[in-house]
Each structure stands twice: as C-alpha cells, then as structure tokens.
Amino acid sequence: MKDQLKKILPQPAQVVIRDSLDAIKRIKDIPDAYFHPWRSQSRKDLHKFHDIHKGKRCFILGNGPSLKHTDLSKLKNEFTFGMNRIYLAFEDMGYETSYYVSVNDLVIEQCAQEIMNLKIPRFVSWRAGKRLLTQQENLFFLYTTYTEPKFAKDIRKRLWESATVTYVALQISFFMGFDEVILIGVDHNFETKGKANTTIVSQGDDPNHFHPGYFGKGFRWQLPDLEMSEVGYKMAKDVFEKDNRKVLDATIGGKLTIFDKVDFDSLF
C-alpha cells in the first residue's frame, strides 16, 4: 500500500503526509521534551544565551575537507561554533571552539563519551542525548526534529534539523544575537554517493571530512541529504536578512550557492 501511494501521489503530497504522520508521532514525546527535569533546566539555562552576542560576528565551522586548507589560527579570538567531531581538529587548531553542536543520533551514540569530556558549552539533541548522556554543567539539551520545517528564533522551543547540524547552529547563532555569521568548511559536497539518509558503515578512511578518522572504518553514519539542507539554508538566509543580519559563505571551494560568497582572508 505504501509503495502504491508513492507511485500515485506527487512528491509534495508525500512530504505533507509524512510530516503530518511525524507530527502525530511526536505528540507522545512533547511532554518529555518540555517538562522532563533535564529539559526544563536546559530551557531555563538557555535564556542566558539570548542576544548575548548581539551585534557581533561568529564563524560556524563545517567539517568538510576544505577545513584543512583554511587558516584556522585566524579564528582563535573569534566566536566559533564547532560541530559533531570537530574536536579532532582542536589540537592542530591550538584552541577549542566557543561552542559545540551535535544533533545526529548516530554521532551522539558513538561519540557520547567524547562529547561528555568536552568542557565548552555544548548543545545536543534531546532525542538521543536523554538516552546516552548525563546532565552536567555546560550541556544543553535541544528539542530537535527531522520534519515540519521551521526556523526557530527561540531555541528553547522546537528546532528543525533540515538534515544538517549546520542549520541548527544557524538557529542558535540567531538566538545569540550574532549580526554576521560566516560559514567555513561547509563544502556541501560528498565523495561518497547513495540514497539520502541511508545508514552505512565506513569501510576505511573518511574522504568527506577534514580528518581521515572523522567517520573512520567501522563508524556508522547517514548519507547526506543536500537538497533538504538547502531548504533550511534558504529559510535561514531569509530570516537573517529580514532582521537586517546576514550569513556569508567563506568556504574554500565550497559548492553551496545559497549565501553570498566572501574570501576568507579578506575578513581579517
């Protein structure tokens, strides 16, 4: 029956039905996502980040191979967001990012202890975090979902993931009041091909990220959904610009075309 409907219904209708069913499934999760003691505490604590960096600029570090060709030493005294396994670059960088973000279930599951060992402020998905992490200082649980697109101006409420942690970081940066957000390492291009969101097991060194061991041999990860990511990026661009703020893309050789491009070195 499911396959027959896919053949009959146009793609937009399929998306509406999928999102509606997902919303129904989420109803049972809502009390926990808002009133569990850990989430209640996170929602209270997240308030302190509202407009904390109003009028400032920040850099969101993607994890693409281009990061290896970017002079990250220039960001030592800047506000920075690192994501997923960015900590593999901390030793070479000589510093840690200002903030850390991770919402992918497989990343949190396989890197839970590494995430717990970080001391910088960390923003993680409640969905996986409640099972794999424990409440501690500077660890904030976000209520994130796969579907029902939106751009959350208030991160104490529900955030949409748009198939990329970078989109979640953009929502956090907006909430913090940053006037200018600059993307680097967001290559928007993967050597490994296949159906979007399919879970695979890495068979060797990782060619898609800045470190060969990022999703190294034996690591389970999901193939990217670049089209869905672009849906979120367009929403972010619109929200930022309507608030007289901007998102720039300084990724070296990046394939993303949503945001205005800027030369990385010209920023300093």
Word description of this protein:
This protein is an alpha/beta fold. It has one domain: sialyltransferase cstii, chain A (Alpha-Beta Complex), CATH 3.90.1480. It contains nine helices and eleven strands. The chain has a nine-stranded parallel β-sheet, sandwiched between helices. Strands 8-9 form a two-stranded antiparallel ribbon. Helix 6 packs across helix 7 and helix 8 packs parallel to helix 9. The relative contact order is 0.15.
Number of domains: 1
The name of the CATH architecture is Alpha-Beta Complex
Strands, count: 11
Please mark out the parts with pLDDT under 50 across 5 or more consecutive residues, or reply none: none
How far apart, in Å, are the first and last alpha carbons?
58 Å
- CATH topology-level fold name: sialyltransferase cstii, chain A
| Structural category | alpha/beta
> Cα-atom Rg, whole angstroms?
18 Å
Shape: globular
Q: Would you state the CATH class?
A: Alpha Beta
The chain-level mean pLDDT equals 93
Q: Total helix count?
A: 9
Strand order of the largest sheet: 6-5-4-3-2-1-7-10-11
Please give a quick description of this structure:
The protein is 34% helix and 17% strand. The protein has helices spanning 2-8, 11-26, 30-35, 37-46, 90-93, 105-117, 126-132, 165-175, 226-242, and strands at 57-61, 79-83, 99-102, 122-125, 139-145, 158-160, 180-184, 199-201, 220-222, 246-249, 260-261.
